[in-house]
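Issue: copy button drops trailing tokens. Both records pasted manually instead:
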Amino acid sequence: MSHITDMIRADLLRTRPATTLIRQTIGLGFVAGFVNTVGFFDLHVYPGIMTGNTVQIGISLARSDWHLFKLTALTVAFFFVGGIVGSLIRRHLRRRPLELIVMAALLLLATPVRARAAESIPFELGLLAMAMAMQGETISRIGTVSIQTVVVTNTLVHFADAVAGRFLSAPASTEGQGGHSRPTALEVAIPGSAWASYSIGACAGALATLAMRAPLLFPIFVLILLAADMLLTAETQPAGEKPAVGSAARPARP
């Protein structure tokens, strides 16, 4: 009987961290998909996808579309500022839940701005861009997987690589003969759940934007839950164990 109890306890210890990582990945992906959709619905600019916005800047310059140029350039500038703020919080305060609370505050500030006249939309996009940059700067590693939850291009690449490595490749070569190690199930699940939750968040963002005046209340609520979850996870983690979600370790500079 004690042997069975020990097995159950060991299984829970193995699955609990994985469950936490997947839960937080889903929440972050949902927030990013939702916020990007709200920004795009308002004026066809993505607050968190700077690759597309940079292309839009080039196109608007070529077409002399100064209105689009102003919007996209403002969004990129605010995203850059948000990245700086996120980096300062990560480097000096080292409190990932605080980052999510600041993001929620930015989205809350954008809610009344969004409800005003159309002239306020550029400021709304700026606030949303800052929030997305802070998420991208702070949350760049989930467990052992380096991943971005703000955009899904690299996430899909990681997902495809993990699927190929785990299910479509021969066993890894022995040490010293080269080859790649076989991805774990968690390394497959994290990018997969990030992409799926991003899609669900985008759909939810579109429906909420069409149905209500304050759709950003949904991601605000999710961010508060995520911050609380991270705090509780940190409190119950054994001493010396690395945090489940956060930025990748930076090498020491000479």
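Record 2 (pasted manually too):
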Amino acid sequence: MSHPLDAVEWPVRTGRLLLRRATGDDLDSTWAFRRLPQVQDWLGAATETYGAYRELYLREDRLASLLIVDLDGRVIGDLMLKAENGWAQEEVADQAKGTQGELGWTFDPAFGGKGYATEAVRALIGLCFGPLGLRRLHADCFSGNEPSWRLMERLGMRRELHSVKESLHRTKGWLDGFSYALLAEEWDAVPGGQAAGQNAAGRQVAADRQVAEAIAAEYESLSPACRADVARLQRLLAPDFHEFGASGGEFGYESTAELVAESAVPGDEPITVENMRGQLLASGLVMLKYTSEYRGRRSNRTSLWRRVAPGRWQIFHHQGTITGPDAPAGP
């Protein structure tokens, strides 16, 4: 059975992290932090033994909804997305199928305080409202799980429900619960919908989100599947697209996608990327810089991306400069 996450070209990179689909090989690395008492305290299911965790982890439905958060080759957390149907009256129920999702996350506390959770969940939200096409997301937690609800608020999610002694904790008894949610149109606006969007912190969240979305679009454009598909690549190119290539050639919208597809080789090595970083030049306008390596040639690259719809970006300028031994001498 397919899962909405199947529609994304994995892995997806953020500024510092790599998000990828979970596999059975991630069992031990996730158990390493999910077994910690301070982590298990707020989990919906806290397995006491490795065997019990293995049985839970390898459930097909659970594994399909799980993403791994990787920092330089080390697993530091996992993310969950469950697709859901929105509530609807019977006559329009078909239109509400698969339109919303539930988010979840668990992180190794050894990597707390560095913004990794915010960066990872922000990227997942961008994917949900971008290529996955969801219209609404929600997440729930115990009121005592302050790090979790603080994270939701940093991401611009609004508290929709404060339930009083509605949630039974395994050791603390009946506790209050919080439910947060976010709509696609809210994600496109300055986050918060409240005063939070007007201060410096709120503006920074909005800027970081736009940069993360542009980075996700850049990685999609570099993926072998996209580069081999003319129509898919053209959707990422603005009509006024212009490129100065690392080869020295100059290209426009009409020729770029066809030339890239013609050069694609089945089973070819992927383009590797180092030091991807972004800067918000204006709302809806992001500049990205990074170093790439492909077929033994390294290039420094710059891309300019323009937001054309909520969660949808198009590149309108790209430039590559050969670096390393192949680079020309002189200024």
